[in-house]
Structure formats: C-alpha cells, structure tokens
User: What shape does this take?
Amino acid sequence: MGATPPERRGGRPRLLLLTPDYPPSPGGIQVVSHRLAAALAGFETTVLAPATPGAAEFDARSGVEAIRVRSPGALPGPARIGLLNAAALARAAALRPRLTLSMHIVTSPAAAAIARASGARTVQYFHAEEIGARPRLAAFAAGHATASIAVSEYTAGLVREAAARHGAEPGALHVIGNGTDVPEDPAPLADEPGRATILTVGRIEERYKGHDAMLRALPLVLAKVPQAQWVVIGDGSLRPGLEALAEGLGVAHAVRFLGAVSDEERNLWLRRARLVAMPSRLPAGGFAGEGFGIVYLEAGAYGKPVVAGDVGGALDAVRDGETGLLVDPADPLALAQAIARLLADPGLASRLGANGRANALAHTWPHVADRVEAVLLDALGGGGGR
Amino acid sequence: MCGIAGSTADGEGRDVRAMCATLRHRGPDDEGIHADARSGVAIGARRLAIMDIDGGHQPLSNEDGTVWAAFNGEIYNHPKLRADLRARGHTFATNGDTEVLVHLYEEYGEAMVHALEGMFTFAIWDERAQRLLLARDRFGEKPLFLHEQDGELLFASELTSLLEVRPRLRELDPVAIDAFFVFAYVPGPGTIVPGVRQLPPGQLLSWRRGHACEQRSWWSPPERAVPRRDDPRAIAAEARALLGEAVRTRLVADVPVGVFLSGGVDSTLVAAVAAEESSTRLRTFTVGYDVGGVNETERARIVAERLGSEHHEVTLTQAQVAERAPVVLASLDQPLGDRATLPLHAVSEFARPRVTVALGGEGADELFGGYPRYRWLERARRVQAALPGPALGSLGWVLRRTAGFPPTARASVRLAPTPVLERNLDWVTGERRHLRTALYGPRLAALDEQRVLGDLAACAGELNGGPAARWLMHLDQRHYLPDDVLVKTDRASMLVSLELRSVFLHAGLAELAGSLDTSLHLAGTGKALVHAMLPAGLLPDRRGGYRKTAFRVPAAEWLRGPLAPAMQDQLAYGTLYEEGWFDRAAVGRLVREHAAAGADHSDQLWPLLALGLWADRFHGRDAA
Assistant: This one.
C-alpha cells in the first residue's frame, strides 16, 4: 500500500477490468472484454482474468496489461470464481483503481467489495444468459453498480426484470451493443465448385443457438437450392448429437462441422459464405437466450447478409429487411424460406450485405469503446458512489 | 381422416374403390377417388371428418389439377404451413390439411415431409412428373401397406384392403408367425402375409413407371448418447414448452376432444397440460376391470378430481371380455398379442359418442426411459462386465432361485453371458422364444430359429460400447413402438372411428429426448424428465397410501374365466392347430396348467389366443 498508485504516473484514472472470460479462450464475452481493455484510451487499464492455456503468449502480443489468476488443478467452477474474486480484492488493494468494470455478474461480489473498501466506482456489464441462470446475483450486481451496461434492449429488459424481482435498485442502465473488427478488404471469395455456403459461427454448447433448427430447415433449403452446404464453425458438447440428427434427417452430406478453427480460416469462410445464419431462440422457463450475437455484426463486416431469430438480442444486432432477415426460429419452413431466398437472389443478398457492412462500420470496437468510456467517465464524475 | 388406398394399374379406379370400401371403419364420413386413366394411377381416401368438416373432401388437387393428394392422419402445424404458403402466393380452396400437402409438394417436392409435424401417411400423384410419392410419419403412427409386382404398386392403410383386391396373396407367412410368437406382434417391414410389406416409419417411396421404386429414410430417431452440460432445469423447461405446444396443437379440432387418463405418470401429465391449454372443461376417460384387484381407476379418479375434469369411467367386465375379445382380436388388420388392446378398444368405444378425438400418452416410456428394464439391464450388464465367468454362473444360479425379488431375478435370469439384446427380449416376452420347439407344430418346425433374433439385432444396430439402456430405448423406438404400441393405438381406436393423438411423439420433443444423455432419463425411478414436467401434488403418492405399480391388464384371470371357452374352442377347431402351426397337445397342457391356477402362462396363451382368433377369421372360419 506504500507504493504510489500507478494512475498518478500516467495521469489517467486507473481502471480494473474484472472478467472470468478472456482470450485466448473463445467466446463473445472474451472478445468484448479484450476489445474494451485495448480501446479505452482514457483509462489506465489493468485486466484481471483467469489463467488459461496460451494466456502468456496472448497477453505479450495484445499490449494490454493483464494479471492472470491461476487456480490449482481442476477446480470446480464456483471455486475458480471464488478465487478470481479473492484475487481481485487482493490486487485492488495494491492497484487502487478508481473504477472497476465488472464484465460478468460473477465478478460483481469483488467489485462491490472493492467499492466498499476503497470507494471505487463500479460499472457492471450484462450479456444475457447469466441473468437467466442467476437472477439473484444479477440483481445484486445491478444494485451495487454505479452504472450498468446491457448489450441489447433485450438484455436491459432482463436486468430490469431480475432487479425488480429481487428488490434491487439499479443505477443508470445503458444499452451499448457489441462491436466488431472490420476488415479493410473483405473481398468475397468464389463459391467452392458446386457449393453455396451457409455459415454458422459459434460454440455448440447451448441449444438456444438453433443449430438443431438449421438441421431441420436444411432438407427444405436443399429442395430449393440443391448445391447448398451448411458450414458450422465452432465446437461443443452438443456437436455429436447434431451430427447424429444430421444423419437421421438425411442431410449429413450437406453439412460440414469444422470444429474450432483459426481466425484466418474463419475469416476465409466469412468471405466465402453467401450468408451467415444463426437462428437463436428464447429458451423456455425464464432462461435467457442470445444477448447480442457478435457474429451477426461480423457477418456484416464481411458484407454478408444474415438470417436470425426474431427474438432477443438479434433484434438489436440485425435490422430485418435491411441487414438480414429475421424469422420465427422455431419454424423450420420460415427459416428455410429465408435462407433459400438469399441463396436464390444474389441481388438481395448483396444489398443486405452492403447495408450490413455500413452498419458494422458504425459499430467497430473503437465506436463501442467511446460509448463505454463515456459511461465510465460519467460514473466517475457522478456524485454519491454506491 | 383415416384411410387411403391406391394403385398404379387401375386407370378406372375399380380396385381402389374396392379397397376404400374395406376402410369404411377408418373413415365413415366420406369417400373419394381420383383416377388418371392415361397413366393408370388411382388414389383414394375414406375420411373421418375432424377438421374442415364440410370442405375436406379428398383426394384433392392444386389449382390446375396436376398434383393430387390422398392423406391419412393429422398435420398439427398446418395453420402455420398454410400461412407460410399463402405468403408465397399459394391460394387455398379449403381449410383442411390435405390441401397444405399439395402446395407444400409443389414448393418443396418430397423434402416437404420435413416441414410436417404430425401423424400421417399420404400419397401424392404428380401428373406432370408422372410420379407417385408415398410417405409415412416419423414414428409410424399411421400405417401403410404395399404390394409390388411387375413394376406395379398397390398400397393401402390396411393389409385387409390389399387382400380384398388381391385374394391370391391371402396366405400366412411362417416366418411372420414365428416372429409373432416371439414378439406378440408382427415386426415391420414384413407383414403376416409374404406378398405384402409396410413402408417403414420415417420413409418415403417414389414410384415412376418403368423405374424401380426408390425408397429412402427421411427421419430416424437420434441414436447416440451425448453427455452434455446444459442445466437440467433448462432442459426440463424446454421440454415442458414443447409439450405445451404438442398438446395445444393436438387439441385443435372441429369436434370434441378428450384425454385417455390411466392414472399413470404419462397420461396424467398429458391431462394436466391439456387442462391448462383447453378453453373448455376437459373430458377424461378411464377403463377399469371387475377382476384382478388393480386400483387403476381410483388413481385416475383422484387425478381427474384434482384437475377438475369431466371424468368418465368404463368397466370392462368379464362378461364383456367374453363377448368382445373374440370379435376385436379377430377384426384387427394384423394379429396383435398386446393384452392392452382390449381395454384400449373398450375405452375408445365408450368415449366415441362423447368425443371424436382423444389425446394419449403413448411413446413416453420408449422416448423418456420409462421401462424399469432399461435400468436393470444396464446394471446387469455392468455386473456382467465386472465379474469373471464362473462367478457369474453361480450368481445367476442363486438369483434364479431367489423368488422374493422378481425384477432382479428376471434381469439376471440369463446373467451368464447372454447378450443384452436377448436378455431384454426374454424380459419383455416372458421368455416365450424358448418354448418354440415345444409348442410349434410341423408347419413351423423347419424354421431357422435364429432368423428372428438376427432381424432384431439388425434393427438394433451396434451397441458400440455405449450404455445398454440407450441402445434398448432406441431399439424400442424402432421395433416395439411402431409395430406394437402404435398399431394397437391406431387399430383399436379406428375400429370405432375415434382418432387417438399421441402427445409425446411431437417431433421437437422426441428429438430433444433423443439428444439427451441416458443417465438424465434414467435418474431416480426413470422417466425423470416426465416427472420433472409433472405438476407437484397431482398424482396420488405413498403418503396417500398409493404405491407406484405397473398397470396390469388381468389377462391371466380372463384366460381362466371369460376367455377359457374361447381358448378351448381354439384348441378344438382353431386354424393354428388344424393346420399344424402349433402343437395342440403341448398348448393344451399350458392351458390346463394355467386353468388350474398352478402357473401363469398368460405370456404364452394370450398371443396364441389373439393369433388363433385372427387366423380363423383370416381363413374365413370365425370361431363364432
């Protein structure tokens, strides 16, 4: 505690960004956490995240200061999260941040404790799924933050609902969508000979992402566009079941599960695909679905139209009839019609793709970071910290 | 909507008309034939009016009469499909689901089946392509029989219809009789006669003149066990939402709808969801018996009271069994040795004046892991894998002699290195196959005994080291469910022109169930997901003095009482014994032992009675 707080050296306020999900492990929250940490120019940012394989190499390359928390052996999830929170508290004592940005509700206990101990302000990020799974913790997180950021109107609704149900009074709630990288030259690649590619990118862990709906729609798509193929990037525990379903439906020949691939390969497929489809649906029973769906924006960055479910965060990420087509994700026929329509009408596909590109350019990470930074500065400047 | 028939060599539609006449009980309200004289193709339908009562005449066609459809079943998602097709510019002349098929075919060709949620078989005649397309639903809820000869194809919803116009096919197939004795049903795709086969569940058949028939699978139950990390609460919530949709869409009809409530978990869940989804007071129906001491009706009554349904009970008395069994068992299209056929027929007949459609819980046991043997045989397999051979042999010996704990004893009857497949078969059939040599007459003596088992193994596929329970569930979904459970459901209800809709066979729900790890299904006492969906406090439980018992049809008592004369008649004059299919003296011994109540041989005698009564009628020698 005797050392001079680092922030005084650079003159910028010290920000501690807490996240349980950080690259190089894949996923949306990982991407948001890293992109914000890299782009928040007005802050001296330190990331606190779990140690994962390849983390050291990643951090050396990324240019973002990151403290990695190691957990001994294979600890169960809750223990790892506990360790992360404890490490955050311990580090905060030395770093003395003026602001904590908690990227997930599981790090909100540490953020709240830091606030109590040092008076640091807290800004809490909300995605979606975590709110449905742990509504009480979500309410706690919202109630203890100076301000909150939801990635979509859908997510903001979930936050308000959880807070109301559990008697929390959230601070200011801002909706800031996720961002994307925009390649300078997303020149489309030609189809593989005789193949028109529909692309889906995302981990195959949650049923709500609608991989099963895609399989049910595929025979109908093939009836209209026999050369269609569905390329699936991403891996997860649901994959073997989906492969079995593809066989049962007689469409295995038109599906390619590529598993997890490099960014380069993924980008090649984004250039090659005719469209990107991810018909996420709302899970039943109060569980939350897609908070935003960065992949919709990424598709736009590559000039590709998207087909998405007309629910949840996709309503913010996709503009129906402008950047893509929104359909009832539980209706295989509607899904098939939308996909077949884009495959059969290159003019429509390229018009939606061009709009998607323009939309992506307006939602690059620097744009997002600017908006987040404004919220952070406002939280710092506002009186009466929580 | 309830029976179809067709032929590719019937330009005037004579055979088709004759076949349709035999389907009258399936469709009493209307008949229609479309014959294409130029191509020789005719398709026809008999209809039970349930939807669009006035406008649902079929076969019907597209606007220019180039695509014709005849349809049996229900498409539960037809309003949604209709809206989608309208948006694509199709115009509709009726409100029924048959017309949806026509336009869907125009749009998607044979891939259209993937858009359908429901139970169906249909025929589509595409005049332009000169192609006849036949399709059957995912689980085989609706039947379709085929006869192919010299490039011509004949099809109908019932075997009886085909035999009506092709009488020379009327002969019994020894291989099918053997399989029937082993299983107590005729396993598809074969039938009881050599010249006729069935279109298997989830398959399509395409016929064009001068080409071989193309037949392919469009759906089969997912078979891999997948360990997964989803929150079990989220899975239960998703299953419940799908079940809600399944019930909601199955309640839609222009006629009254009820629920068959046995007081078991499955039908109670169906009734509970139906009560929630229904805008009018739910009607529930239960069948009970005057013998056998089963408290089934009481459980159902308590559930009905708790749900506030308008509850009806019918008692199938011994006198009625004596009168009805010979008629019902003989009038089934193919022989069926499932003892629940009679009560299902009785409750259908009782319900028919009050409702035209009823919801049932069929398929839940097979899809959601309800049978105790799934758990027991999995345990037995693990024991078998862990113990050395001699130890197994002695354990088996001890267990066989331990009378006090029947499930274990049964699971372990052949604990010695008997494959799971055979142990399962012996469990469900009361080891009937081991009596073949003793009971078969000369006409069955020359059969290859291994053939039935070989066919079963082929249907089961490879165990591949996965959990035995999963493998057995998959086998039941492909064998027992379509060829026994759903045959019983379709025929027993159709005999009285009632439509029975199976809620658990909703495509999305079935695919969800099939995608889950077996351990999730078998947790607790099994069928964990069904229990998770059931509202608390609905079923009578131990605290109320109710023990969870398997529902038992008192077949053993019936065979000693009201059906003893029919069995005696069979032995005296029955086709099975007169023609040398079964050994009169050997079966006679079983009958005497059973009658003296020294032993329960109902596992053997019930299928023999069912087959015998059916065979007598088949040969035009009704026992009466």
Observations:
- The longest strand of chain A covers residues 44-50.
- Residues 77-95 of chain A form the longest helix (19 residues).
- Residues 196-361 of chain A form a domain with the Rossmann fold fold (CATH 3.40.50.2000).
